[in-house]
Write the structure tokens for this entry.
Amino acid sequence: MSSTSEEYYLNDYFDEYKNLGGKKNKKEYSENLDIFFEETYDIFIDGNPIKHTSRHKAALAVMDEAEISANEYNLIFSSVDNVTAYT
């Protein structure tokens, strides 16, 4: 997803995140969302293992880099997937 598309959908993603029970503010969410896209896009969308060899490893990388729990990762994933069908 291009950064323009990310910016276009940011409000929708954030609203969905909050509807799902997310507690981060918009700035924190946006920073974590950037990490999410950076770490997962290739393997999730293109099936390209250039950065990570599996979706699981990509998810772990997001949690590690963003310093978030699995629950928070799932909220971010669902906020994107519910709005624009990420996978």
The mean pLDDT is 94. Residues 3-84 form one domain. The radius of gyration is 12 Å. The helical segments are 3-19, 26-46, 55-66, 70-84.
